[in-house]
Amino acid sequence: xxxxxxxxxxxxxxxxxxxxxxxxxxxxxxxxxxxxxxxxxxxxxxxxxxxxxxxxxxxxxxxxxxxxxxxxxxxxxxxxxxxxxxxxxxxxxxxxxxxxxxxxxxxxxxxxxxxxxxxxxxxxxxxxxxxxxxxxxxxxxxxxxxxxxxxxxxxxxxxxxxxxxxxxxxxxxxxxxxxxxxxxxxxxxxxxxxxxxxxxxxxxxxxxxxxxxxxxxxxxxxxxxxxxxxxxxxxxxxxxxxxxxxxxxxxxxxxxxxxxxxxxxxxxxxxxxxxxxxxxxxxxxxxxxxxxxxxxxxxxxxxxxxxxxxxxxxxxxxxxxxxxxxxxxxxxxxxxxxxxxxxxxxxxxxxxxxxxxxxxxxxxxxxxxxxxxxxxxxxxxxxxxxxxxxxxxxxxxxxxxxxxxxxxxxxxxxxxxxxxxxxxxxxxxxxxxxxxxxxxxxxxxxxxxxxxxxxxxxxxxxxxxxxxxxxxxxxxxxxxxxxxxxxxxxxxxxxxxxxxxxxxxxxxxxxxxxxxxxxxxxxxxxxxxxxxxxxxxxxxxxxxxxxxxxxxxxxxxxxxxxxxxxxxxxxxxxxxxxxxxxxxxxxxxxxxxxxxxx
Length: 598
Hints:
Strands 2-1-13-12-9-3-8-7-4-6-5 form an eleven-stranded mixed beta sheet, with helices on both faces. Helix 1 (7-45) crosses helix 4 and helix 9 packs across helix 11 (309-316). A hairpin with a 2-residue loop joins strand 10 and strand 11. It is of the alpha/beta class. The chain has helices at 7-45, 55-60, 62-65, 71-106, 125-135, 182-192, 209-218, 249-263, 272-290, 297-303, 309-316, 320-330, 334-347, 354-357, 371-374, 391-413, 429-432, 438-445, 459-477, 490-500, 531-535, 565-597; strands at residues 151-157, 163-167, 172-175, 198-202, 223-226, 380-384, 422-427, 450-456, 480-483, 502-513, 516-527, 541-546, 552-555. The termini are far apart. Keywords: Cell membrane, Membrane, Transmembrane, Transmembrane helix. It is a multi-pass membrane protein. Residues 505-524 are annotated as: Disordered.
């Protein structure tokens, strides 16, 4: 008959040890409290000298240490009071432990294998401050530098209070699903704390970055709002000339490219009709710019291909080759010419809308927005357009592009970098700001003090706009990549999992035999974050990939949990109500007409 395993004896010893440890944990503090309580009682009642330090005796035989005290005094001083104090200390310790445990769980305990503080030291406070001094001459001799002047807050290293910031030479891509904190935790805090000019593109106004920041940014500089499709129902208090940068063939081609990108996906931009329509637009934009005409004249020329005005302008300004190309298209086969011109008309159709065209043509008593002046200010430019805005979103992309190009030129004049840097938050970039060569711009913008943060809802969304090669180029050129919750693309999630890597996991195995219990320890590798864990990232957290560093898990910092949030919330609510009031006022005549007709 087999004998009982020795494991039962081991378990018995473990239980006895725990009981002994628990008894000591109560007896030791209780006996010391009894000795202290007895001496205090003796001193308070003047019943004799203090007893020597004998805590065990004080607990078991207090009458021998303090013979002058009565039974009631001994009971209170060495039993009741010490017991009550011990219970109170136990309750306090339990409450503190639960709070610490709850706080730790609220901070989402650090995932094993992810970056620790030392792994991302260049993004920590000390390093990022030193970097800011070297990048910004205005801070070189400053005794104290505010955190907002050192870099853009991305969040806290998970489970800690250590802030993680990207510097003012980094360029970033953020891929975050709707309602994952892209606006509340990234766009809005970045705008509020930006030390220089700010550019924001968005397809929303009420309850978004526009309303949350416009009041605060108005206190540090002028706020400009370009709202051709009346998302915020903004009063037209600016106009911008898109032809200002189109007086060269390259500039005119870039402007035409924005209309092309806003109308067709990257996969369709290489066909004959798309390229031909874009070429016609660039030639007509060049002619209008050279003759200082409004951009709306281009629509008139597109409506009447036989109009020789653009040909004459191009020849008069020395662009004979361009004029010849335009003439060849106009005098070509009618069916080909009509197809090309119709394609161009479709790309620029938004300019037929007088409400939209008013934002890009000279307006009496309305100031002109000049990018060259904006980039040296602390102003804020809000560029608003609806999803699928077509030609309207082309104007938004063109304006954003013009600002970044003006910033690049200013940086070159200033010795290489803007100081303070310019922040460009390209929210909903794949919908309202399709700058075709944005991936190429990423390679040098950061070195000029121009900090773009392109916010996308998914990686595939970027592929649709810039193609596989373009999106891969932007991803590679981004020195900081922020990935929020809601990643439902299995291929992309697996790619991220492989980038995060593997780590060693200790595996303990226990076996039982007649000779007893044996334990062995081995190491194996497993994914730090498998694809399903990345898909299930909780809201309020994000992954951060920085060049040359381990991937880090961040706790996001939404603006409404930061100091001063109440004041900002009130300002945002006022701005949202103003949008509502403007919308009601605008549509009131229509409602009245409807009521009369009824």
